[in-house]
User: What shape does this take?
Amino acid sequence: MMPLDAIVALAVFTFATAFTPGPNNIMVTASGVNFGFARTIPHMAGITIGFLVLIVACAAGLGLVFTAVPALQLALKIVGALYMLWLAWKVANARPASEGDDDGGDGLARPLTFLQGAAFQWVNPKAVVIALSAISLYVRPDHRVADILMVLLLFGFFTALTVITWTGFGVALRAVLRDPRRARIFNVVMALLLVASIVPMVWPA
Assistant: This one.
């Protein structure tokens, strides 16, 4: 079993990386505002499960592949940046869905599906870096199975708690943003934050 001090350190790492603002948290907040909690559940589930699958892939050797083939890192940055720009456009053009409205206003935007939320983790540079860091920092070579299970347990818990919290925050803002003009401003701000979150991921240090 992983030593207690290592579990505490991993828990702090997991909490900090999960709760800090990033593409996933920005998107579920905007989704909570525009579509409500229930319609954002598939997106939340996709983020949680997709990230756990990414961790397993990193533990299985994805990190070694990225190290051996630097071109893959560049490809990830390009694809991830382009996809996040597209998501930012969707957020900026979203209109809050009224009761019983399945299109989310004028149909320009809908909540992400489970598969879209899960697939996004694979082109999200922040998610990839966190997964690779967790494996390299907290998985001991002679205790791989037990340590990987602990990493999955803590990341599963904190990721789920994070997306629920940020979506709930978005839902709480719905009353304030019933005015279409306020909602529009909020969505544009969220889109700009999403674009801003791309910069530290793709710009060389």
